[in-house]
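Known limitations

Files may contain more than one protein. Parsers should not assume a single record per file. Below, a two-record file is shown to illustrate correct handling: read the sequence, read the token line, then continue until end of file.
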Amino acid sequence: MKRATANLILCMALLGPAKMAWAGNIDDIRSLVYAWADAWQNQNIKHYTSFYSPTFRSKGLDFKDWIQKKTDFFQRPGRIRVGISDLWIFIEGKNATARFVQRYQDSKVSDVGEKTLGLVHSKDKWKIISEEWKPLLIPARTPGAPATSLIQHKFYVDNRPSEPVSQKNTKPSNKTIVKSIKLKTEKNYEEFFIALNTFSIPKVQSIEGQKPRIVIDINNVSSWSGKYKMPVNGHLIKQIRTCLHRDTETLRIVLDLKYADDYIIDQTYDRKANIYSIAVR
């Protein structure tokens, strides 16, 4: 599935012993978010409000008052556009968070912001119970620069690859220790693993253009002895770079990708083993 804009969809679940138990719900939420945006863009108030729980609250408004506000807004003349990118989904039990970059445009307003939807799973459906928006300053894309489309595809942590790059130093337990980073290369995909000593979700972003790459930031890391550059020359990942920013105690890991029109990726966090992975195909 391709979309007009470049999307990085980061779907992540807290996976316990039954690691695939919530996999379907990740896809359910992903579909819900895009259907919600389509209903908004089509100004279909009945369909749009069906995604919300009666317990929804926003900026002091209860569900009934909020529905009235949106109904009045949807009746305004003119076409609107709603774009979604960088979708990240986090599930824990019957609660979930969907965070993404939202691009909105109508005849009078054009803005870009980070939208966060809080959801609850009830009666076999996900419903939105809260939402927040904050503005973002997004640099303009260089004219003529090709876009790399990074689109989610389900992939589950399987066999662990061998020959890890290990962190040898021992640090206090209150710090995040990157125990090893590993790359598994197969014919149709490559998977990058980060083994940690504790639960910690990295911050991930994509860089588009002629030199596409995935940037992974891990916080609260006080030391790192891994190599700065690790050429791997895989089918998709050509190099791994690492750098510890000691002032912020942030370990940055960069996956340099080979140029392609489209990438399909997925993130997974295995909470039982504290292993974070990115699959690229």
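...continuing to the second record:
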Amino acid sequence: MAFTHLLLRYGELFLKGKNRGYFEQKLCQNIKSIAHVPSVQRIQGRLLLTFFPQHHLLKRVFGLVSYSPVLKVKKDVEEIKKAAVTLLQHHQGTFRVETNRADKSFSIPSPQFNVQLGQYIEKHTTLEFSRDHPHTTLGVEINQDGVYLFLEKIPCHGGVPTGIEGKVFLLLENDASILAGLLMMKRGCHLILIQKRNVDYSLLQHYSPTLLKTHERIDDATIPVVSSQTFSEYTELNHSLIFRPLIAFTSAEIRQQLQKFK
């Protein structure tokens, strides 16, 4: 049975208070732009997409914590059991069930449902239950609009949606500049690129929901500047605030951190 949807998880910390709606809206816009999907559905505490093969593009969306390819079924116990067996039929070894009952109108509490579903799986497959060291974990999310079954949580980079914190200049000099730009986008900044050297910034573009443009100099606008770990001084920046977020990073640490984004 093929997966039907993608269940997306975002960090709760930055969604508190009056800005929640705006942050969610920005995150949805960025998902549509970077992953090239027509629509994003908001459900209780989650975002939902129709399954598409190139879902690895979601790892480029800052603000997402993780996502899962899921099989959606109705909130019917027998249908959930049959779908679970179908999803696990080619797996061997041990398993565990983890249920998240976001919809409290579903009458069976999560611990009891774990047991009930686990017993059914043991009876109808060759799998054996293991609490501490399972080969496979079946995730079950019971939401208001349905039940989602999945076998993995694919980690993303977290952070906050790019574009919610305004604009910064980024001096393109070397790999450190690229990493500095990625980290600032992860904290919500939109980048304006200053091309001091011929640097490949395609990795920045992969994570940006908008088309990045390069400039040869900084205009007289009083906008904060994000730089790399270098100590170069530019006379045209004397009027602006310069950040050096990688000043304590070694070259080896910069290369290591960059690999996480590739």
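Parsers that stop after the first record will miss the second one. For reference, the second record is described as follows. Residues 230-239 have pLDDT under 50 and may be disordered.
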